[in-house]
Amino acid sequence: MRRLRVLTPVGLGLAVLFGAAFAAGGSARTSTVAIPEGRERAVEVRRIRVHFDSVLLELEGRDVAALGAAQRDNRSALMATLGAYRDRGVFPHNYDFPGEAVPYFVDRKTGTLCAVAHLLASTGRRDIVDRVARADNNVRVAQLSGDTAFAAWLDANGLTLAEAARIQIPYAPAAPVVVTPKTHTPVALPVAMGASALAGAWNAFANADGHSRIANVLGFGSGLAAVGIGAAQMRRDNVPQAMSLTTAAVGGMSVALSARSLHRHRVIAAAEREAAQKSRVSDATVAPIIPVGGSGAGVSVSFRF
Question: What's the predicted TM-score (pTM) here?
């Protein structure tokens, strides 16, 4: 019993060490982080803003002497609106065309308007925006040359179809966001691994000769439970595979050590029985029988058990 009290903490320490090491290893799976969507989006926003910088310079450089006063005023107001739209930095997303830059009149998830649609809406022509978006939300402005209402709006605001087409920008496809499933370690895993590690240490050292039936039973029971729990958790994606595998492995080791202790106990018990049988006839005494009267001579053999 004294030996058991010394070695049991050793087994417990091994269990804690296994649990801490592999729990850390399992949680490391969650550190796999994809490039954040925010970073990709920031690159796209900068690209769009640079585009509008260029467009505004082109619009400012155009000779508008042929335009009427109202057209010039409306044009200047739209340029200011476009500058504010650029500065706000909220633009539609391309959700549907991987590998291809495509315009969107209206962001189908957020409702954000493209630059041309925003200019239309800012002048009270949301009806044109909604009609175009319903007909073809990914239409290019150059394809709207036959839309009389849109053409009239362009003329009233001192813009040409080519300038409106230049304002429009196709949106780069959204980068795929890799989501790493969050992992968690069920309490059953470290408990099963710790129990089987403890029982395995007991059978490896204090019960190496298999004399303790309790140690043998605990080794088999906790080991089989750990193997079953570890194998079951391996099928779950959100559980660290290293932890599950280690729990099953420690359980298998506990079963093996219990089997070894039981086998040794049987061998020792068999040897003791054989020795006991041999010791039953340990001494033999042979003595002559001297007859009295001249007959009945012989040998006397006596055994001591």
Answer: 0.50
